[in-house]
Amino acid sequence: LDKNCFPQKVRKKKQKYFLHHSPYIIIVLSTQHFSPFLKKSRNILIRNRKDTNFLSFQRIRRKMQPLGAEVHQRIARISAHLYPSNPQMGDGSILERTNCRAKGGAAGFKVAILGAAGGIGQPLAMLMKMNPLVSVLHLYDVVNAPGVTADISHMDTGAVVRGFLGQSELEGALTGMDLVIIPAGIPRKPGMTRDDLFKINAGIVRTLCEGIAKCCPNAIVNLISNPVNSTVPIAAEVFKKAGTYDPKKLLGVTSLDVVRANTFVAEVLGLDPREVEVPVVGGHAGLTILPLLSQVKPPCSFTHEETEYLTKRIQDGGTEVVEAKKGAGSATLSMAYAAVKFADVCLKGLRGDAGVVACAFVASQVTELPFFASKVRLGRTGAEEVYQLGPLNEYERIGLEKAKKELAESIQKGISFIRN
């Protein structure tokens, strides 16, 4: 600032300059952000016009040196957190919002969570806010989205958080997204199976996927809403009708089954669960969940009793949590953790990392079924390769046949919901 543009009495003020910048207010910004264009070290307080007796801002601005690009970015990042719901600060304003950068300076990814105010959605949103690969995080729900957004936006991590409430704001939540995570739907209650959720959750998934097809057809979709064995086929049919279906980009999240398998096997072996890897194939409900214990890493062998115990516990893991909570909820926290692990590998695949592999329920030719959960290699276009099952022992072959029979019915149920 050129101090000569101020009246004499103002130049005598040593502590602060008072400037008008209608209609927005920035309170005491550190001078280090303005060093490229300030001649003297000062703090700046921008106040409303009615609070100042000085020259008009337009006259002062003519005396200011041009702002550098770096300074623009700094101011914009501040404004992004002050005004997260507005696409820009105002017409003609230099304080336009930009997205924060991911760790290391590289551009991050834009992620939307549909159902962000629910039991899974809230911890999922918190954990995604902590992910250094995320630059923009959109939180959508039909209730309570503003509160969750305000809460999570206070976390001092890089991602810019924006909230969207209700059907009318779904389009804004989805536009331009790289990854869409869908935990929306009602939770399981004691005595309920995943199929009991079908009638309600099927309609929710259909509506959300119609929005995805319209607003971000190239986004990778991580579908958590149960029953996954049916909701993934529903999503596929919606995308086919819209002409946007890409089987590589539609991924049913079965990572909770893998997380449970790693944990339970580690307990039996006395190992750290982080050192254990158990492939889980088939589907994401009951008998369709098939852990391949013969392929555990590190290699080990189990007795028949251990195999039956582990398989049964992995298959019934969700029921175990529902009963333990006694009607107060389902496996929300562990599901959020597992979903974030899977979302992270999807983002690493989008980034172009090599050797990114995880289990997911996808369009598949591994069996005669149109969808099947198995290991997939993730890349810039989604599930770029679906791996075969590998050698199975007799117990696993029998389990596979049982899983396929039940899985076929669930898949057809989802397809019929849209076609009929």
From TrEMBL:
Record keywords, A-Z: NAD, Oxidoreductase, Tricarboxylic acid cycle
The protein's name in its UniProt record: malate dehydrogenase
EC number: 1.1.1.37
Ranges where the Lactate/malate dehydrogenase C-terminal domain occurs: 254-417
Quaternary structure and interacting proteins, as annotated: Homodimer.
EC primary class: oxidoreductase
One MF annotation (Gene Ontology) recorded for this entry: L-malate dehydrogenase (NAD+) activity
Family (UniProt): Belongs to the LDH/MDH superfamily. MDH type 1 family.
Entry keyword Oxidoreductase: yes
Residue ranges occupied by any Lactate/malate dehydrogenase N-terminal domain in the UniProt entry: 110-252
InterPro entries xrefs: Lactate/malate_DH_C, Lactate/malate_DH_N, Lactate_DH/Glyco_Ohase_4_C, Malate_DH_type1, NAD(P)-bd_dom_sf
Residue ranges crossing the lipid bilayer per the database entry: none
GO biological process, one term: tricarboxylic acid cycle
Gene3D superfamilies: Lactate dehydrogenase/glycoside hydrolase, family 4, C-terminal (3.90.110.10), NAD(P)-binding Rossmann-like Domain (3.40.50.720)
Entry annotated with the keyword NAD: yes
Lineage per the UniProt record: Eukaryota, Viridiplantae, Streptophyta, Embryophyta, Tracheophyta
Record field: catalytic activity: (S)-malate + NAD(+) = oxaloacetate + NADH + H(+)
